[in-house]
Amino acid sequence: MNEIIRILWVSHDPVRNSVENIKSNSGFWKESLLFLLNNNPKFEIRVAFPGKKPTKQNYTFRLPNKRVYSDLPSITRRDLLWIVKDFNPSLIHIHGTEKPYGLIKNYIITPIVISLQGFLSKSFSAVLGEIPLSIWEKKKTLKEIVFGNDFLNMHKTWYYNSFFEKKITSINKNFIGRTDFDKDFLLEYNPDANYFFGNELLRQDFFEKNWNIKNINRYSIYTSSFTNPLKGFHILLDAVFLLKKEFPEIKIVVPGIFSKRMFSRFLGNSYFRIIKEKINQYNLSENISFLGSLNGEQISNILFKTHVFVLPSFIENSSNALGEAQVVGVPCVVSNCGGTTSIIKENENGLYFLRGDAFSLANKIRSIFLYDELAIALSKKAKVFGLNFHDKVKIYNQYSTIYQNIVNENII
């Protein structure tokens, strides 16, 4: 089959390289993959995402701002059907199951493939980060009470939206994943589905760095997020408190801004109030650096000088932040949850700690701080794994083959 394969990407966020002047701090792997695939003359790719102003190269569609979706909203369905009719794709690639776009399957005969990312069905139970309900109630802010956008409501919203996610998984045929965790999730709801293996591509900045213990800032810890309790930043704070007496120079470095408004009783966020209380209680204000918004080059420079990367999440599939740290060669400590068990091999290319257990996390960080031989050995194996798992040529071949196989065999 020599004719051009027309592929429509459906994404919940705009994809860089397809839209100018967008503001987004996520989806960098899609940007890298789109750039790579656009170099193949066999493919013509257009991107559709929620918005008001389509461009010459992309489509936008309307998505009502609802907390819970029982089905694909009629206005979204009409817009997507118009886009499919206008572009006439050979294949539709939907990124993720967290929004109801995969339910378009009920209205078209065009082949669809869906990338498995995070799962509401597996995440809603972890979104509170094992913080007691009494604390969540106590820390609610006026803004959260008025608008109902606190984490207790997020827990409920993710639970109810998990029903359409299960439906998407059960009615569609083709899926792309990369871990035992996402494969098991798929087979739980659709044992007859086609599972294609496809990794996620990282930004080039990280491939240009090579971690060396001689260049690091001793006792520094990089973690990628502090905004959602699911990501476990409060567990890292507990662990650093346990380590501070032995390592007084210990320092957490994390992207983002932590301003007074964020933990205000009126306009703030209950999780930020919990974090602020822990920082004050543990006297850690001098042991944390919030670095603001960072690009790939800045993050890679920080990782290059970091003593250890920590992923304290309560649930993950395949964390790109972990992949970035591995490609640079940073020793990694991660929670034993979700898809990380397909990526980290204990005492080979990283260390596990018990999910939610600050004592376990502190002990693993302490091992890397004390034993340079261990840190160097983990670094070498992490880099080898990361370079292979995120290899550009391999990933290009994976997606090219997936697209062509589905289209050639007309797998609907």
Summarize the structure.
The protein is 40% helix and 15% strand. It is built from 14 helices and 13 strands.
Tell me the helix content: 25-40%
Mean pLDDT: 94
> Per CATH, what is the topology of the largest domain?
Rossmann fold
Shape: globular
CATH superfamily of the largest domain: Glycogen Phosphorylase B
Give Rg in angstroms. Answer: 22 Å
Number of helices: 14
Distance between the termini: 18 Å
How many structural domains? 2
Salient structural properties:
412 residues; alpha/beta; Rossmann fold; 2 domains; 7-stranded parallel beta sheet; 6-stranded parallel beta sheet; 14 helices; 40% helix; globular
Task: Give me the secondary-structure topology.
Layout lengths: L4 E6 L17 H10 L5 E8 L7 E4 L12 H14 L3 E5 L16 E4 L4 H4 L9 H7 L2 H6 L3 H21 L2 E4 L2 H10 L4 E4 L19 E6 L10 H12 L6 E4 L15 H13 L5 E3 L5 H9 L1 E6 L8 H9 L3 E4 L15 E3 L4 H13 L1 H18 L2 H18 L3
Parallel strand pairs: 1-2, 1-4, 2-3, 4-5, 5-6, 6-7, 8-9, 8-11, 9-10, 11-12, 12-13
Helix pairs in contact: 8-9, 8-12, 11-13
Describe what this molecule looks like in 3D.
Helices cover 40% and strands 15% of the residues. With 412 residues, it is α/β, with parallel strands linked by helices. It folds into two domains: 5-201 and 391-409, 3-Layer(aba) Sandwich (Rossmann fold); 204-389, Rossmann fold. The chain has a seven-stranded parallel β-sheet with strand order 3-2-1-4-5-6-7, with helices on both faces. It has a six-stranded parallel β-sheet with strand order 10-9-8-11-12-13, with helices on both faces. Helix 8 (233-244) links the parallel strand 8 and strand 9 (251-254). Helix 8 packs parallel to helix 9 and helix 11 packs across helix 13.
